[in-house]
Specification:
273 residues, alpha/beta, TIM Barrel, 8-stranded parallel sheet, globular, binds zinc ion
């Protein structure tokens, strides 16, 4: 048993009461690592997430300005970001991207902030975590212009696109991460996309506390349930669940070079907020 949750919002307020118990259950379920995603514009989320990564060898962090929050992006916030990602516990820049389903920020602002963060991530030499919902045409265009040649790769997280979209991203060195919605009865299109991605390019995630898989649907999601997602991908690719866990863990380590380093915890280069 060795699983990797490539995307969990451990700093979310819904984990405030029982964060340690959530991590203990993750370990009991066989998780070897969790990538905790913090929202750069929310100081409390960042503080919680970075502290967890600092205090737990099996937790790594990513920080970015989510497309929902793009309207709050400032040069000051980006400068804070650049300081945060210097921590050896931060392995990726994200999640960043475009969300035209909710349109919480104007689309032109989302695009500008997405481009800007891709430039910053290039400067920091970090892979990116991409959130894209109902915006594939613009997302692929921006990635082809701003990212494809960087050679740093990234993750299309909580994948909701077509096999064709996945193939473009694979050409640019991306991994494709599937979440609990791949287990939903009516998600045949997602399962078709998951079948189309080679095993060497797959990741599994919970996106917890959101998107609990079918077996626990309606509950608060948590990293331990990534085993359900691995089970579904295993079924689609005719592997055992443990084998899928092991393979997706290898993929994670191949992409996130910093997570391969010995679990040495160093003080933060500047006080994270
Ligand atoms: Zn997302
Ligand atoms: Zn997320």
């Amino acid at each position: 048993m060795a699983f990797t949750d490539s995307h969990a919002h451990l700093g979310d307020a819904r984990f405030a009461e029982d964060r340690e118990a959530v991590l203990a259950r993750a370990r009991d379920a066989g998780l070897e690592r969790i990538l905790a995603i913090a929202e750069a514009s929310q100081p409390d989320d960042c503080r919680q997430t970075l502290a967890l990564a600092e205090n737990n060898d099996f937790v790594w962090a990513a920080v970015g300005i989510h497309p929902h929050e793009a309207r709050h992006a400032t040069e000051e916030l980006l400068a804070q970001q650049e300081a945060r990602v210097r921590s050896p516990r931060v392995v990726a820049w994200g999640e960043i991207g475009l969300d035209y389903h909710y349109d919480h920020s104007p689309r032109d602002v989302q695009q500008a902030v997405f481009c800007r963060q891709l430039q910053c991530a290039r400067g920091a030499r970090l892979p990116v975590i991409i959130h894209c919902r109902e915006a594939w045409e613009d997302c692929l265009r921006i990635l082809s212009q701003e990212w494809a040649r960087a050679g740093l790769g990234g993750v299309l997280h909580c994948f909701s696109g077509t096999p064709q979209v996945a193939r473009r991203a694979l050409d640019w060195g991306f991994l494709i991460s599937f979440a609990g919605n791949v287990t939903f009865p009516r998600a045949e299109n997602l399962r078709q996309a998951a079948r189309s991605v080679p095993i060497a390019s797959l990741l599994v995630e919970t996106d917890s506390p959101y998107l609990a898989p079918q077996a626990v649907r309606g509950k608060r999601n948590e990293p331990a349930y990534v085993v359900e997602v691995a089970g579904e991908l295993a079924r689609l690719h005719q592997l055992t669940r443990d084998e899928m866990g092991r393979r997706t863990g290898e993929n994670f380590l191949r992409l996130f070079a910093r997570a391969r380093a010995p679990a040495k915890r160093e003080p933060w280069p500047s006080s994270p907020r």
